[in-house]
Amino acid sequence: MSLSEIVKADYFDFLRFPTVSADPARDQTMRDCASWLEKKFGEMGLEAEIVATAGAPVVLAKWSKGGSGKRRKVLIYGHYDVQPAEMGDGWTGDPFEPRMLDGMVVARGSTDNKGQIFAHMLGVAEAIREGGAATDVIFVVEGEEEVGSDNLEGVLRARKDDLKCDVAIISDTNMAGPNRPTLTYGLRGIAALEVELTGPSHDLHSGVYGGAVVNPITVLTRLLAGLHDEKNRVAVPGFYKKVRKVAAWERLAAKNLKVSDAEVQRQAGSPALAGEPGFSAIERIGMRPTAEINGITGGYQGPGPKTVLPSKASAKLTFRLVPHQDPREIARLVERDLKKRCPKTVKIKVTPQHGGFPYFCDPKKGFGPAASRALSQAWDGKKVHYLLEGGTIPIVSVIKKVLGVETLLVGLSLPDCRAHGPDETFPIGYLERGAKMNRALLREISEV
Amino acid sequence: MSLSEIVKADYFDFLRFPTVSADPARDQTMRDCASWLEKKFGEMGLEAEIVATAGAPVVLAKWSKGGSGKRRKVLIYGHYDVQPAEMGDGWTGDPFEPRMLDGMVVARGSTDNKGQIFAHMLGVAEAIREGGAATDVIFVVEGEEEVGSDNLEGVLRARKDDLKCDVAIISDTNMAGPNRPTLTYGLRGIAALEVELTGPSHDLHSGVYGGAVVNPITVLTRLLAGLHDEKNRVAVPGFYKKVRKVAAWERLAAKNLKVSDAEVQRQAGSPALAGEPGFSAIERIGMRPTAEINGITGGYQGPGPKTVLPSKASAKLTFRLVPHQDPREIARLVERDLKKRCPKTVKIKVTPQHGGFPYFCDPKKGFGPAASRALSQAWDGKKVHYLLEGGTIPIVSVIKKVLGVETLLVGLSLPDCRAHGPDETFPIGYLERGAKMNRALLREISEV
Questions:
Q1: Do the chains contact at B207 and A190, CB–CB below 8 Å?
Q2: What is the pTM of this model?
């Protein structure tokens, strides 16, 4: 076999582990995949170990040049767990038996995150084969990213000395498009809450009590309708107080992504877009905070009618945050607003859930310019795009908090890769491209 | 067994049929219960038959004195189907295994409507045992009342000659309170609709698209919040145009019910009441139309958070109507209002469901005074109360339309019986009381 055939065979072996972290029956699979990674890192010339946790194990793998000279050290984070995938979800083949289709690998995890972390492993392995990487390296590959990374912070804290580094690298974000190298320089944070209203102590007949007893669903619709004003701005008092003003170059960078509102609308399959005035769709996603109702429930939901005036109604809310909003403070503001607006006719219970800080790493400072140079090199001199991601990668804030370093987000994920959906894909050529990017990045970092 | 023990055993057998008409899997159960009724009527001395329909069968049972003298004939209507009932709804025991609790029978259908129709059956059976009822009698017991009585009108039309009568009797309404005989002289009508909004063509990641793509739940909360104005009046344009002005004696009768706002609040277990200004709670329920959200659903409803921006959100609505509102016209007004207010960012689908006209029968005319006398006799000379019921019995309007007769609404249902809710109850003593009322009523009707 040629080297590229061996590489592909290894990647396919990695994809064949059905490492669905949400499935409690997968414990042994998670351990098997971690062992496979430990062995693979070893073959590549790194010193690997498996760190057990209360959940899925974390794989650490380090390579150091040794000697007395002061060298940079880079932490490379990835995850070997994947989202659930069932044939019934619309897959056109076994999600855990990788297939090639027009140069694309179709399999669960092909992009998110096995393909992307494997590209970094290949880059470091190549460098070691050729005499050594440009920096010292420590890989952290966890198995619980898709279920909240509950045990990772503990591992980072316990192994803080081993993980001491100058900067972290993660490839788990979108590119602006195929062959368009992209540096993601910010992520939105999140504040999640659940609100539950209780009106009558039990479900009532809506004919017998309707008009006299207040319906908690009606109150809930009023409270939630009041989360936005008529211009689609979030109406919670104080919500925008700490929102960072974006720089002129950022709006230009957003424009240069050339993701039109029509393109976002096409991807979403939405009849029409709308949102906060004064911003394009891509700007609203990256630069502006939002309020979303992720779920609402109350009363009868089965087939046909049921004339009930229900006791309870509830909703799940998330607020996507931008610097310098604090998820705990936003949760408090929302709770205060909902409680203030809630009439005495119902009891209200607001339960804050998980939160994550927004992240921002100025690409003009620190290791940002090095990352830009490396991306351009890896993609044959192409212009680098700068992206603000709408989603949240909580681990980025954890790395900053525990290890005190910034993270360079150099994703290899294509916008239409169907991560989390059926028939997830990854261009097979991006393994080599990612390995090249890894080597350029370590080299550039070593020279800062 | 004593007669009362046999009666109770029969009643419990009737309650054990889980005749949930909303559940399509209950076809056989409906037929079994209809057969049980046919047999029971036969044992009581009536001539019973089962009339098949496209849905649940209708049971007819007649008794006639025969001979040549001109006699009054009374139609007694009831239903053997019940509302859904699941342990998860808050029942403290199997809803279809009746239990006794302080003289009350706890079971789904105990009040609505099995207990009440069974009391009439007992009254007629007693009279037959003692030589004959005071009038000729025809029972009509259907199995689709809780889902709109779709097939009953056809049966009434097809069997119009057999069903020819002077007046109808229904016990399916509330009493003013325990041991307070009550004649219900009006019912609210109903217009039911389902509204479904579709935003994106598939569920989206709320981080990746939130802020740019409009969330259909958010739109739904705005549309539904707009169903009422700030004073709790229904805000649909034209909604109140045909609402009847109530007479002074009616407001006095409502006051004489002595059902305070505090009592309604206590029954509902509601933190506080609110409603249309200028009316007491009992007046709002009887005399005024309303808009209720019976159910709402959208997005993720399981445990914990899920950051989804859902494709769909929907709600079930009912409007309770008073004379002279027309359910078809109200459904049209609501559909027009929702569609007019719905933004282009989502697709809206409004599906009108069942409708029923409001009903009004002056208790000072026709058989009204006879009903008043009979109620007073059955309850040991107590004063009779006059009630406008908030619920809907569409069949009352159908009986008037098809058979041309009024209906006397002589309910045995207590205000806190929890019909449609968990732990529905009926006082076991009301079987005997209802049988007595039935006999007094047939006697009084025979003498008008």
A1: yes
A2: 0.84
